[in-house]
Amino acid sequence: MTGSEQVVGPQGAGGLVVIPTFNERDNLPRIVERLLTALSDIHVLVVDDSSPDGTGEVAEEMAAADAAGRIHVMHRTVKDGLGKAYLAGFAWGLERDYPVIIEMDADGSHAPEQLHRLLAKINDGADLVIGSRYVPGGELVNWPKRREVLSKGANTYARLALGSSIKDITAGFRAYRAPVLRAIGLDEVDSAGYCFQIDLAWRTLQHGFTVREVPITFTEREIGESKMDGGVIMESFLSVARWGWQGRTARFRS
């Protein structure tokens, strides 16, 4: 635990929201507008993976129109997974000494109006705060039953395999204190898909940092298509099994 001093202001000052995008030109302006309305001092970094639909250009227009300089854009020339996009955004934020770095999707599934819940826990002393669908008060809206069953199953599997108590370890709405990201070995992370979320939460726990969950409402996207596929699921399954085995082996040897 890094301490309980206030690191983010009441309107989000000191926080950087990293939003990876690929073909999100219709969703991005909406989510950023909602975010800056909810927290007027927060900063945003859009990490665009050369979207064919022009999302990167839309992001540049938004940045140019924001006189307060709160919107920033990173253009990547390769599309090599959500995890790699987040790692690039984290590195950008750490280089600029943002004390808190936040993950959030561009598709509207994470409500910017609820980000203050995560930041309040950060200010209370948590090192990583996860916006959880599966703690009391968490909700799912318009999510297909198949996806819900898959998500809950994945979280149960991860808890059992890793011996973790986190209810929603796959969640992608989360806030990190910068010292956590500096300590957990981001240069060693090779998770490219959604198991990136499990990977970083597990590393955070392994390094002795404090993880908290707060309830959020997760809403299925209205525009565009999910990036989830079978390869992502298999990567997560195999990686979690390996981490769980390594953790149990280490405990046995000690």
UniProtKB/TrEMBL annotation:
<dbReference type="InterPro" id="IPR029044">
    <property type="entry name" value="Nucleotide-diphossugar_trans"/>
</dbReference>
<dbReference type="InterPro" id="IPR001173">
    <property type="entry name" value="Glyco_trans_2-like"/>
</dbReference>
<protein>
    <submittedName>
        <fullName>Polyprenol monophosphomannose synthase</fullName>
    </submittedName>
</protein>
<comment type="similarity">
    <text>Belongs to the glycosyltransferase 2 family.</text>
</comment>
<keyword id="KW-0328">Glycosyltransferase</keyword>
<keyword id="KW-0808">Transferase</keyword>
<dbReference type="Pfam" id="PF00535">
    <property type="entry name" value="Glycos_transf_2"/>
</dbReference>
<dbReference type="InterPro" id="IPR039528">
    <property type="entry name" value="DPM1-like"/>
</dbReference>
<feature type="domain" description="Glycosyltransferase 2-like">
    <location>
        <begin position="17"/>
        <end position="184"/>
    </location>
</feature>
